[in-house]
Amino acid sequence: MRRDAAANRERLIIAAETVFAEHGPDATLDDVARAAGVGPATLYRRFANKDALVHEVLSGFFRRLVDAAEAAAAGPPDLGLETFLRTVGVELALKSGLSAPVWGELAPRPLVEHLRGLSTELLAGAQRVGAVGPQITPDDVTAAIWALRGVIQSERLDPRHRGAQLWRRHLETILRGFGADGSAVVEHTV
Q1: How many Cβ atoms from other residues are within 10 Å of residue 99's Cβ?
Q2: 3-state secondary structure the chain
Q3: Which of 40, 84, 156, 169 is buried most deeply by CB count within 10 Å?
Q4: Where does residue 89 rank: exposed (0-12), middle (13-18), buried (19+ CB within 10 A)?
């Protein structure tokens, strides 16, 4: 690929990430081309359709989350899960339009599953050293991420909460509930 063609492709991917992060699936390829400062024909020469561009953008986003999980796993096990959840919160707050459920089948399933596996390993490491209670399951970690995504989405939609970063307070509540003593966890029996 020629240098200018490679530069255009990279500029399109960066612009697409910004546009899709803000507008999700409602964003058009014309929106992306405009944000990249290129004509639609240039975009179509690089990407056959919106799905191809979305796949490229989401793969990059989830690869960065995988890298963050791997970096967290390389650190102290008592902080790994917390570090990972904080990173996910920041990424979702900045780019909520890139979360997997927003895109359905276009989300890069192998990367999403790999990320779930890594978060399960982070949970196991935190439990081994007593930083997280034994009652916490991988499904609890997944639900925590869903909850963060929901709080972030509500912040985006409700002008009263814009910029309040309520997701950070919510994450603190989740992390207290994950604590080793389990004092914030209420067991329900039927």
Answers
A1: 23
A2: CCHHHHHHHHHHHHHHHHHHHHHHHHCCHHHHHHHHCCCHHHHHHHCCCHHHHHHHHHHHHHHHHHHHHHHHHHCCHHHHHHHHHHHHHHHHHHCHHHCHHHHHHHCCHHHHHHHHHHHHHHHHHHHHCCCECCCCCHHHHHHHHHHHHHHHHHHHHCCCCCCCCHHHHHHHHHHHHHECCCCCCCCCCC
A3: 84
A4: buried
Please give the single-letter amino acid code of residue 155.
Answer: E
Residue 103 to residues 50, 117, 127, 160, 175, Cα–Cα distance (Å)? 12, 21, 32, 27, 28
For residue 161, which phi and psi values (nearest 5 degrees)? -110, 0
| Cα–Cα distance measured from residue 82 to residue 175, given in angstroms and rounded to the nearest whole number | 7
For the domain spanning 1-47, the CATH number is 1.10.10
Full-prediction pTM beyond 0.90? no
Query: Rounded to an integer, what distance in angstroms lies between the CA atom of residue 168 and that of residue 154?
Result: 13
Pair of tokens at residue 98? 């890139």
Which tokens go with 2? 């020629």
What is the per-residue pLDDT across 45-90, written as a single tens digit (0 to 9) for each? 889 999 999 999 999 999 999 999 999 999 999 999 999 999 999 9
CA–CA gap between residue 6 and residue 8 (Å, rounded): 5
Token pair in block for residue 61: 């986003």
